[in-house]
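FORM 12-B: Structure-to-Sequence Request
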């Protein structure tokens, strides 16, 4: 097959003939600038992805901790927490939709050097996160008593489900601020701060849930005077998410994640809100 003749055609219309000719790569396929300078594309992908992968595992560990402690309490408590996980996934989907829009808009703005727009997106994201978290929390709390008998097998399990979900629903605004804050920081190119934040969240969740549930684990007697059962497990989740939200707000306020959260950016801006919702 005859090769096309590119003579006389401007190079900007043709583009690079291979990845070796790409403007951001050296002849041997390594990045020329930025934090990942000198790395191949494969190595760069790994450097960017391993903190996100580890953070996702830590996020899973929060729910796994609740499940393990619930199993120690009894079958009804285990039933309640298993049923509650489906509702928590629903809450997570709402929060994730806001976070996806935030990551995309912040990343685009930072990549184009428009830091003011990125900071505006951060402020509007945190505003939407607070509203969405509170709204979905109220919605779940209002329906908890209705759906509890549908998702559990015994009255005791239904009651445990209600207690657990009411506490989790109350913490939904903090959860939204935590994960949307992580989305903003990640969009700015910082994948290490979310990793540390989730590590702290897990440590607090394990400590508080164990202390307040009254559960003995791995042959270790619980030395604390609390015996709140499923309610204690939910308190651990709520406290850890509150702490995580404070960490991310502090990071964003100080501008340590590459973007900043300013009070003036918390005033509703319909154009930015529309972009975030449309993208998310």
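FORM 12-B RESPONSE
SEQUENCE OUT:
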């Amino acid at each position: 097959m005859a090769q096309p003749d590119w003579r006389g055609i401007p190079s900007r219309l043709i583009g690079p003939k291979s990845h070796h000719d790409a403007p951001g790569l050296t002849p041997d396929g390594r990045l020329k600038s930025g934090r990942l300078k000198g790395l191949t594309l494969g190595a760069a992908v790994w450097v960017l992805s391993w903190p996100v992968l580890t953070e996702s595992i830590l996020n899973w560990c929060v729910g796994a901790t609740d499940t393990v402690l619930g199993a120690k309490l009894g079958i009804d408590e285990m039933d309640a927490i298993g049923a509650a996980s489906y509702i928590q996934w629903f809450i997570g989907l709402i929060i994730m939709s806001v976070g996806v829009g935030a990551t995309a808009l912040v990343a685009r703005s930072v990549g184009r050097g428009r830091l003011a727009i990125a900071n505006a997106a951060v402020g509007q994201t945190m505003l939407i996160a607070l509203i969405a978290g509170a709204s979905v929390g109220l919605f779940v709390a209002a329906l908890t008593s209705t759906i509890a008998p549908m998702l559990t097998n015994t009255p005791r399990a239904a009651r445990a489900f209600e207690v657990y979900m009411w506490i989790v629903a109350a913490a939904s605004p903090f959860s939204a601020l935590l994960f949307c804050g992580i989305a903003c920081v990640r969009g700015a190119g910082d994948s290490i701060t979310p990793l540390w934040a989730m590590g702290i969240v897990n440590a607090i969740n394990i400590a508080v849930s164990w202390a307040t549930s009254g559960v003995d684990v791995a042959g270790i007697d619980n030395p604390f005077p609390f015996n709140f059962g499923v309610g204690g497990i939910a308190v651990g989740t709520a406290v850890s998410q509150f702490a995580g939200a404070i960490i991310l707000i502090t990071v964003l306020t100080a501008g340590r994640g590459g973007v900043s959260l300013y009070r003036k950016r918390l005033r509703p801006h319909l154009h930015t809100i529309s972009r975030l919702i449309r993208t998310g």
